[in-house]
From TrEMBL:
Compartments where found: Cell membrane
A cellular-component GO term for this protein: plasma membrane
Keyword Glycoprotein belongs to the record: no
Protein name: CidA/LrgA family protein
Keyword vocabulary terms for this entry: Cell membrane, Membrane, Transmembrane, Transmembrane helix
Pfam family, one: LrgA
Membrane-traversing stretches: 24-42, 65-82, 94-117
UniProt membrane topology term: Multi-pass membrane protein
Record bears the keyword Transmembrane helix: yes
InterPro entries in alphabetical order: LrgA/CidA
Recorded superkingdom: Bacteria
Length: 125
């Protein structure tokens, strides 16, 4: 599991180094996740050719362990909110309004995208 967590963190580090080095407008962890996906796909393709599919590798075990304790990752965010309660009290109404508008825009965009895609697929032969 330690090697798998190291691989996950190395992919994230590589993503950070690449995005900062090239000045890409992409978060480093996102690029690191893409690198990890490419590595896992290459591993699965190679393993199916060489010796059959891998059943339960360490990366899957490590990721399941991280998902089990995912709620712990919300503790720093909660502490940050408590630390900035004065700003929240000052701008709380504006934050709630912005959150409500962003939720509505997201829902509207999702509905319009779904309707567009369903029309395109219903017209296809």
């Amino acid at each position: 599991m330690l090697a798998s967590l190291s691989l996950i963190l190395l992919c994230q580090l590589a993503g950070e180094v690449i995005t900062r080095g090239l000045g890409l407008p992409l978060p480093g962890p996102v690029l690191g996740l893409l690198l990890l996906l490419i590595l896992l796909l290459a591993r699965d393709r190679f393993s199916s050719i060489a010796r059959g599919p891998l059943r339960n590798s360490g990366v899957e075990t490590a990721s399941k362990g991280l998902l089990k304790h995912l709620s712990l990752l919300f503790v720093p965010a909660g502490i940050g909110v408590v630390e900035k309660l004065d700003l929240l009290a000052t701008h709380g109404l504006a934050i709630i309004l912005i959150l409500a508008v962003s939720v509505m825009v997201t829902l509207l965009a999702t509905v319009l995208t779904f309707r567009l895609i369903s029309r395109l697929f219903s017209e296809a032969p």
